[in-house]
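Question (not urgent): is this output format expected?
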Amino acid sequence: MVLPQARVSARISSIAESATMKVDAKAKALKAAGEDVIGFGAGEPDFPTPEHIVEAAVTAAKDPKNHKYTPAAGLPELREAIAEKTSRDSGYAVEAHQVLVTNGGKQAVYASLATLVNPGDEVIVPSPFWTTYPEAIKLAGGSTVEVFAGPEQGYKVTVDQLEAAVTERTKALLFVSPSNPTGAVYSPEETAAIGHWAAERGLWVITDEIYEKLTYDGVPFTSIASVPELADQVVILSGVAKTFAMTGWRVGWMVGPADVVKAATTLQTHLTSNVANVSQRAALAAVTGPVEPIEAMHKAFDRRRKLIVEKLNNVAGFHTPVPQGAFYAYVDARRALNKEYDGATPTTSAELAELILEKAKVAVVPGEAFGPSGYLRLSYALSDEDLVEGISRIEKLLGSK
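Got this back:
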């Protein structure tokens, strides 16, 4: 007798769909069906990719050398440019052989965790966190240890909180500044303190720096990799998606000690091989090109940041700290729960987000995607007009202060 078997492996069945992508897909499906939906879900700049980057890609597409396989770790000139950029911007001196070019930042996240984490290992993840981190840790066989910091702490964890979370199974800390989803930015002093603590504990630090160029109000970006004691136990993750409005080009990277990067490269030889050469040529133009297009986008994000916080804080039951980085506002919506709106009484932020989408035709991501319930994430990487209209709809539904 043949025993029935599950069609999908337990490993894959155990992971959850990306909540942010799910919200974005639902909003786009409603738009396609003729609904007037405004989406605050996806972290995707509404700007086109700068023209000099597009032109570099067009030129590359016409060159037959880009029609073939290239080294799995990435084009040598791109790896060299990323190494120079990392040394300059993160204060972490590396060479090209310490760089792996990946198919977007998500693959860099997965590759680093798959390379470092053994079954049973624990990874400390400050919460609120990006929705992909726990699932990637789970795929690597590890477990996530959440350390929550609420708005009272500016959504930033302390060394004492991290120390309380350590066990004999702790392998790594996943550190993110500027933060998705909260926009929090750790100060140089806070970053150094956490870096020294991790080094003393002998922990790996995986630091996601994809929003490094998006800080505001004179707040500096500080890489935890600049802590000297961490040099041999830190991995930097980044990419071109956010800074250069290149989400669809799918180019990220992983930078770290040579042995770890070599192992991750071996994984990539079996997983995807090299990133599309045309996209790599575009990324090279981005990393080495003019800064004026970046500055123009940064200025727009800063304007929208101030606008969205002002508008959100007019909504009854909402409290939104001013984000210092990235392009997200993280709303404390706990006081908006357990109240009746148009015949419905949401008790969780997931229910509240569903209500806002159904009644106001505005897509937001609930806090359950990033940690505890009671919060909402809104991306302000959309037009000023849509931003104002979207928040106005939410205010009309929930009321004003």
